[in-house]
């Protein structure tokens, strides 16, 4: 497959000489992706987690997928997102990432139709959205206010705030105390006083940064102030839709006329024009004394795909990391969740020794802790037996055994290899061909191939725009050298361990 200037994905003409539409091509690719997932994961797993996963659109190298519930979205993102992306990229190399949304949250359960049109089912994709220029109906769907849970009105078409994610339900520990204090201070600021602007929270998956964003939104909205919460993909989709519908000025004014803008997963904002508009929005709101809160999975300096001016603006406020959950905090989260379930299931009892065992065993993130509690509850309610250490061990075995390894980034590989061989990262990305630079560059390319899911063309682009054949040559050369040079083999294994720890 090749990617044209207008971002459409084309296939060769069929035997009648008729070129298939972008919609047909995207649907065909998605059908092949689902068939491969079914074959690789098995019928039971596929039916449980992927049977209701649908393709919504492919825009600027991102495949937008949807599921009907937040639980499915969370589970697939936590356990299978890398697998889905790897399979998708093997079928469509121009797809660089995936984004998973909840269909009712995105407002796409029912199609928007013009007056007088008969009711019709919403297509899984449209040629317009695949081309990166959503239809006018899509633009209206974004601009129309989305319903908030429990009847609360959503401001300005933003994503709804989860009513469960408040400051009262947030468990504080050493790793998140600073982030909580900063979020609370921003939420409680009065009389238009803006502090820590922007407030930038960063953390890995399931550590509570999104919880704090929703808590800030609830607190500020309760004061009667105007709030809009957007994920990065929703911001991008809304902006592109407004361009197609020729309502971009109204879109910009809508964003800039609020008191608090919350952007989640800012690392996913792609596209030069979209990044420029995002930067202009940041500048306008900050200059007007409006509060901005942003969350991402890494600090601003590490968002290398983001425009440098935007990174600088984000770094100019208060940057706070939400650290990993320590054992005491994990135990507190488990205890709180179990106590809340006891209001519905009075016989659900989990002893302190079991809570400590689960807290020690599951260290990845809060979502896995939630999954552990759900498994314990299922065991207690379905079997009617008490929760012991033995039953707890059996119930959470899959969460412990299938804990995914650390996700290694190409930037981390480049930095570590550069430091190890006393060269700079810019040297590795440069055109220099001296032996002191070539060998570290080849090792970094090899590690990028074996430790990440990136394709050879993508690795080449991340190494100064090199061709994929250059990467393949480097990988093969290091593979051969590893079999002949034991010292190099030990060195590369050490680098692997350092990157994966």
TrEMBL record:
Annotated stretches, region: Domain IV, binds dsDNA: 381-501
Binding positions for ATP per the UniProt entry: 206, 208-210
Pfam entry (one): DnaA_N
Coiled coil: none
GO molecular function, one term: DNA replication origin binding
Presence of keyword ATP-binding: yes
Alphabetical GO biological process terms: DNA replication initiation; regulation of DNA replication
Principal localisation: cytoplasm
Stretch list, region Domain I, interacts with DnaA modulators: 1-111
Compositional bias annotation for Basic and acidic residues: 1-18
InterPro entries associated with the record: AAA+_ATPase, Chromosome_initiator_DnaA, Chromosome_initiator_DnaA-like, Chromosome_initiator_DnaA_CS, DnaA_C, DnaA_dom, DnaA_N_dom, DnaA_N_sf
UniProt feature, compositional bias: Low complexity: 118-131
Subcellular location: Cytoplasm
Annotated keywords: ATP-binding, Cytoplasm, DNA replication, DNA-binding, Lipid-binding, Nucleotide-binding
Domain Chromosomal replication initiator DnaA C-terminal: 409-478
Subunit structure: Oligomerizes as a right-handed, spiral filament on DNA at oriC.
Role according to the record: Plays an essential role in the initiation and regulation of chromosomal replication. ATP-DnaA binds to the origin of replication (oriC) to initiate formation of the DNA replication initiation complex once per cell cycle. Binds the DnaA box (a 9 base pair repeat at the origin) and separates the double-stranded (ds)DNA. Forms a right-handed helical filament on oriC DNA; dsDNA binds to the exterior of the filament while single-stranded (ss)DNA is stabiized in the filament's interior.
Domain notes: Domain I is involved in oligomerization and binding regulators, domain II is flexibile and of varying length in different bacteria, domain III forms the AAA+ region, while domain IV binds dsDNA.
Classification via PANTHER family: CHROMOSOMAL REPLICATION INITIATOR PROTEIN DNAA (PTHR30050)
Protein name: Chromosomal replication initiator protein DnaA
Protein source organism: Microvirga subterranea
Name of the gene: dnaA
